[in-house]
């Protein structure tokens, strides 16, 4: 509540206090003013901020009603709307206020006192008589001839240029210049120029001179004087601003327009002072004309290409001398510059750095994607777009065996293998690779360097021999006697070339391997071996036809504890044959015979194939009962020959090793084994038959030689006897 009363008090106190009144303004207005109306009198200090209200002018009776005075609401000037007459009212007392519609004063009142200034516009009421003497004299107020003034005139200033004269006395002269210029007139009517003139700033002036009385009233119409400023060669030619470089394609023909220089001279047009000619400064013109790169028309300023060829990438600054006075002595000059750039065009075909690539050898088992070689091409053009290249195999790759790989903006292309090679199909390939521009070529076509020949030689690859396993393992009791078969190493492909086997790093000499069959046996008793130990040797297999091709595999022997009892007598296994491809029959294998003197000499027995992986792959063994097992082929095809199959027979803690010999052979439709027939006794071999034949021929040859020798010696003996020693033949 207290706060509300304080606010009301603060609002009402200023309203109740009297406002300070503005100071009175005083304005004089000439009576019978002959100028334009309304006539602005003085500016009122109205509020600057925008306030809604109206300006009210009040004062003497009739002032507001007649609308004699008003205030311009935009400028705030007090104005009078018509001429005032001092004889009617000599002074006006006005008040100006800013009020709202409900007559509340927002600003003012501002008192203004307006005094009407007296003019001599009334007669005195008396008459007078005067005698006037009039004499006729020559009129000297005559027009003036134009005056020509040289610009930049070097004379003392002010400089007298003309003279005007009014016949009567009590005269003074008034001068005005259109446009405003440095001119003046003295009391004697002499006209002066007060400083140097510049024709380029103003070429002509129109001077008007009035003859006036002491009240500045004109005696007559003004005289006009035309002042013409004559030109001097004081302005050098102005070159156009240096713009961006002018681009000219290389190989452009002579006469191609480069640019046109148009220097501006501010001196008088069509005068020698503004007559501009041109001269090429740089590059300096060569002689003869065939050596000139540019030609310049000295009159028009046109620059064209000359006969000399320009190279792409050149940046040339043309300097042209612009001279006025037509190039004669005493003229002014300026040097104009035009930058010129010779742009590149696609006039160079790409070429390989080497057109003949040395033969590249690839094995025929090289994987697709193998890098054959990398070719490099160059392009003498400068523009990156003109150096973009496209590569292709033009000849020698009808089967699509090779491919090209390159980046769009690269000059290197990789020749890669796309398909597998075959030595039998093609022992060599002669490829022709061509390079072309992506952009259209201008000028002569590609040369011989646009192709490169690549010869690829295919190396025949004979694969190394492959064994049926990468590593072998066998478990052998330490009591195994010498000569026991442990396992057989075989090639993975039965139809591959024959192999020759050998053992490496058999430090103890416990093992041996048959060179042809690959059977691994114990070479001697395993003395020094302990159960649980491992013995590792390396089996090496060489191709019998290609000894340089070989492979190897590790053989790990696991030693078992010695058998607690001697091996019992095994039941003889009848010699049986099995057919390959596999048929539905096998071999029955029986356990050891019962021996009442030995413990454990009777069943039941367990049967298992030996640890040789080859045996386990080629054979299958299943138990028939506690004393017999059934042995069959494990594969559809097993090599036809005699096989020794190791079988482990166990009972309780005892293990016996038995060797089952099985003949695998080809069979006829009746299941009978077909064996190769050996050589019959008494029949000669091929070698012996050839020897007998050759011996017989040699014997016949020796016999014939003896006969011919004997006959030759006998004939020679007859010829050596005398004639008379030959008995005469008796004719009957």
TrEMBL record:
Q: Which InterPro entries match?
A: Cadherin, Cadherin-like_dom, Cadherin-like_sf, Cadherin_CS
Q: Which GO terms describe its molecular function?
A: beta-catenin binding; cadherin binding; calcium ion binding
Q: What are the transmembrane regions?
A: 687-708
Give the UniProt subcellular location, in the record's own words.
Answer: Membrane
Give the region (Disordered) as residue ranges: 574-607
Biological classification of the source: Eukaryota, Metazoa, Chordata, Craniata, Vertebrata
Protein known as:
Cadherin 16
Keyword Repeat among UniProt keywords: yes
What are the alphabetically sorted keywords of the record?
Calcium, Membrane, Repeat, Signal, Transmembrane, Transmembrane helix
Q: Name one GO biological process term.
A: cell-cell adhesion mediated by cadherin
Lineage, top-rank taxon, reads Eukaryota
The Cadherin domain, residue ranges: 56-131, 167-239, 240-352, 354-467, 468-570
Q: Name one GO cellular component term.
A: catenin complex
> What residue range is the signal peptide?
1-18
């Amino acid at each position: 509540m207290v706060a509300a009363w304080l606010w009301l008090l603060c609002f009402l106190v200023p309203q109740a206090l009297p406002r300070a009144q503005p100071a009175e303004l005083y304005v004089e207005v000439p009576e019978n003013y002959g100028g334009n109306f309304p006539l602005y009198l003085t500016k009122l200090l109205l509020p600057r901020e925008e306030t809604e209200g109206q300006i009210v002018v009040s004062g003497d009776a009739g002032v507001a009603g007649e609308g004699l005075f008003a205030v311009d609401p935009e400028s705030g000037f007090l104005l009078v709307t018509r001429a005032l007459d001092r004889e009617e009212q000599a002074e006006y007392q006005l008040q100006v206020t800013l009020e709202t519609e409900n007559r509340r004063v927002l600003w003012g009142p501002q008192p203004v006192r307006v005094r009407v200034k007296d003019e001599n516009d009334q007669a005195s009421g008396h008459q007078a008589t005067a005698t006037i003497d009039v004499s006729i004299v020559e009129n000297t107020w005559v027009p003036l001839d134009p005056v020509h003034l040289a610009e930049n005139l070097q004379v003392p200033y002010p400089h007298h240029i003309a003279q005007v004269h009014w016949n009567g006395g009590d005269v003074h002269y008034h001068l005005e210049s259109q446009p405003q210029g440095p001119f003046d007139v003295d009391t004697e009517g002499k006209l002066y120029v007060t400083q140097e003139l510049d024709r380029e700033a103003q070429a002509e002036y129109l001077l008007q001179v009035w003859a006036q009385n002491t009240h500045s009233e004109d005696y007559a119409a003004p005289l006009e004087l035309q002042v013409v400023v004559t030109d001097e060669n004081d302005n050098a030619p102005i070159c156009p601003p240096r713009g961006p470089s002018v681009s000219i394609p290389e190989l452009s023909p002579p006469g191609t327009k480069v640019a046109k220089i148009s220097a501006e001279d501010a001196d008088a047009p069509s005068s020698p002072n503004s007559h501009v000619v041109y001269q090429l400064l740089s590059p300096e013109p060569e002689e003869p004309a065939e050596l000139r790169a540019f030609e310049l028309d000295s009159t028009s300023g046109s620059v064209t290409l000359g006969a000399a060829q320009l190279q792409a990438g050149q940046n040339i600054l043309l300097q042209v001398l612009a001279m006025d006075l037509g190039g004669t002595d005493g003229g002014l000059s300026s040097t104009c510059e035009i930058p010129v750039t010779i742009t590149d065009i696609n006039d160079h075909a790409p070429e390989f750095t080497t057109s003949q690539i040395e033969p590249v050898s690839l094995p025929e088992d090289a994987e697709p994607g193998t890098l054959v070689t990398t070719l490099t091409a160059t392009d003498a053009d400068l523009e990156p777009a003109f150096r973009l290249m496209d590569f292709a195999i033009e000849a020698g790759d009808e089967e699509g065996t090779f491919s090209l790989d390159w980046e769009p903006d690269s000059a290197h292309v990789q020749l890669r293998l796309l398909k597998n090679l075959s030595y039998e199909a093609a022992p060599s390939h002669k490829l022709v690779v061509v390079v072309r521009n992506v952009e259209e070529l201008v000028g002569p076509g590609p040369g011989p360097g646009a192709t490169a020949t690549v010869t690829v030689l295919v190396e025949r690859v004979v694969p190394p021999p492959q064994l049926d396993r990468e590593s072998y393992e066998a478990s052998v009791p330490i009591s195994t006697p010498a000569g026991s078969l442990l396992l057989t190493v075989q090639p993975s492909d039965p139809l591959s070339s024959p192999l020759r086997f050998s053992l490496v790093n058999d430090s103890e000499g416990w093992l041996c391997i048959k060179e042809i069959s690959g059977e691994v046996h114990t070479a001697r008793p395993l003395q020094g071996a302990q159960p649980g130990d491992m013995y590792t040797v390396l089996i090496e297999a060489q191709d019998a036809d290609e000894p340089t091709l070989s492979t190897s595999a590790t053989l790990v022997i696991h030693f078992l504890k010695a058998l607690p009892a001697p091996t019992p007598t095994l039941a003889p296994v009848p010699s049986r044959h099995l057919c390959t491809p596999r048929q539905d029959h096998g071999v029955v294998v029986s356990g050891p015979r019962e021996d009442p003197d030995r413990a454990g000499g009777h069943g039941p027995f367990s049967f298992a194939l030996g640890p040789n992986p080859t045996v386990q792959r080629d054979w299958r063994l299943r138990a028939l009962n506690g004393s017999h097992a059934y042995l069959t082929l494990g594969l559809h095809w097993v090599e036809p020959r005699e096989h020794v199959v190791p079988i482990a027979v166990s009972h309780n803690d005892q293990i016996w090793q038995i060797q089952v010999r099985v003949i695998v052979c080809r069979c006829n439709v009746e299941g009978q084994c077909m064996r190769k027939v050996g050589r019959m006794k008494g029949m000669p071999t091929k070698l012996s038959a050839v020897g007998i034949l050759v011996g017989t021929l040699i014997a016949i040859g020796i016999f014939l030689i003896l006969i011919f020798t004997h006959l030759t010696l006998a004939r020679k003996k007859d010829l050596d006897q005398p004639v008379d020693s030959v008995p005469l033949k008796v004719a009957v």
